């Protein structure tokens, strides 16, 4: 799994795909506007929210927290739901990606957050998490990871 993520972030690197003319906007402003629409029109699974362990009293409370803690983005081309279920590896080691429903211009931490969550949930290995960030040549940013994962909770 870690090797597949490493290949994605290096070979397909979100940093190597030009976004100037990308018609797909998955920026924080766009995602937050979608979330607000879903909440206002009761288009989220409220039962799932009530059963969750999130420290918010309501979906609107979560939304308000996300608005208040929004940060400046570093836009790149993003898969939008980077996890091992969306990576296909063939017998020669070729890698393909499926489920591009959230793909587009987004903050660089979007894919990193989803991949980091997937690594942690599958392994619970701190050393693999460290290797993941070493392979990316960046320091882990828990605040941005948490933000992206909270934003994803109601989608």
UniProtKB/TrEMBL annotation:
Pfam families: APH
Domain (Aminoglycoside phosphotransferase): residue spans on this chain: 19-136
SUPFAM superfamilies given in the database record: Protein kinase-like (PK-like) (SSF56112)
Protein name: Phosphotransferase
Organism: Leptothoe spongobia TAU-MAC 1115
Lineage: Bacteria, Bacillati, Cyanobacteriota, Cyanophyceae, Nodosilineales
